[in-house]
Amino acid sequence: MQLSEQTNELFAALSKAQGQLEAASKSKLGHGYKYADLAECIATAQGPLMDNGLAVTQLMGDINGNTTLVTVLTHSSGQYIASEFIMEKAILSGGAGKNPAQAMGASITYMRRYAYAAIIGLAQEDDDAANAREQRRQSREHAVIKVHEISAQVAACLDKSALTTLWKTLPLNAKNDGDVIKLFTDRNAELQIAPITDAQRKAIMAHYKDMDRTGRLADMSSFFQREITSAKDLTKDMASELIDAFNGGTEEE
To answer: Is the entire prediction scored with pTM above 0.85?
Structure first.
């Protein structure tokens, strides 16, 4: 086995890719058994590898006259890990009609499949296992929706960002539930913040006409107990509260 001098980025990317990697389906029929062929293994792994800057290349080599298979896992950083082993001699048997080159080709494909799966940690599973895994996934997605719990979580969201984050955590069936959708729609409407109006801005500027900008902002910051950097920081409700204070209790329309 050979490694680049540094492997930290490669192994971090491989860890993420393996978290996304599904098992290859045993869709090919052998002599009394099923297996995932090389094409299936590559197709299964291609997405997770590509998404994480990884790639596998396989080359033929030679050690003392013996044919070898070199499998290299590379990362976009230039880091790599490589494995090389001597190929078993391909022997014709049973008069199957293959010439030596065909037998060698079959042997190479066979060993490539095992080496490819080994270097990225790719497993194989039969149809029964795949179906069971899919059923478990669907079971999680279709868990009982506890609307009262979701309602409490929605009510606890104090801004639209928190509401969006909560929505992303919901299972698919909850996102398609009418009651849940209404909860989020209503709360989103409640969190809509109306900006200061032109009339309010003019009223505030008129009140502060004898004060420079620094003084105005300092006075508003003191009133709201938070830093105000511009009149645009004020919402319609905040502006109404400030003007109300100017007028001794009632905002003038």
So the answer is: no
